Amino acid sequence: MNERRSGRPTGVLFDIDETLVDLRTAMGNTLREISAKDLAHFTEEDWSAYQHLYAADPQGYYDRYLAGELSFSRQRLLRVAHAQEVHGLPAFDDDAAEAWNAAYDQTLPQHFQAFTDVMPVLDELDALGIPYGAVSNNVHDYQRAKLDAAGLERIRILVGIDAVDAAKPDPAIFLEGVRLLGTAPAQTLYVGDNPVVDGRGALNAGLKPLWIERSGNPGLRAAYPDLPVAGDLTAVTAVVSGSELPS
């Protein structure tokens, strides 16, 4: 058995977006709320496509933010500009872009919610005395506010990209989380929704990865045979209780 996968974890680190917090739904609800008047002609199909395109970010603007090429606000505005263009909508002028961004900033936190499987898992970790925290590809203060808005104030250990000037999959950001937990990398479970950034990133940093793939897409799962995968966070309870990681 792979040494990284053997033994019972003594600590757990989580990704935040799409692992603990349902960010896609929050973004979709925010887009709809702040644009409902201007896009009153949209059908449900239009809204679904518009929301999906913004969240999916096919142009990779968020990755450019992580690389230091764009500001956080700029990557957001470029994402919505792309969605506007694809749907044949006019581009925002500077004033409209500023107003849209301000409305988005104000509205988005109102829609942050934890997935329903989060609290039971954290309860179990508390009962077992297993420390946990979060490692995220965004800055600490923004993600701290997100966790709090989603009712996850109990997650006190949090590492953002500004902590070590590195983003996942760089090993440094994972290892900073391990340091704060006070655990060994090989006995720390890292749980995230992205197979490359979270799964293989954690594996390469010496942690135990657990990929959460909520859609149940067999083709996607087959593309990463090296990663233990589960459909929801209930697998975390099994792993920390001494069961084998899913395969």
UniProtKB/TrEMBL annotation:
The keyword Protein biosynthesis does not apply. Pfam families: Hydrolase. Keywords: Hydrolase, Magnesium. The keyword Hydrolase applies. Its cofactor is Mg(2+). One of its GO terms (molecular function) is hydrolase activity. NCBIfam families: HAD-SF-IA-v1. This is HAD family hydrolase.
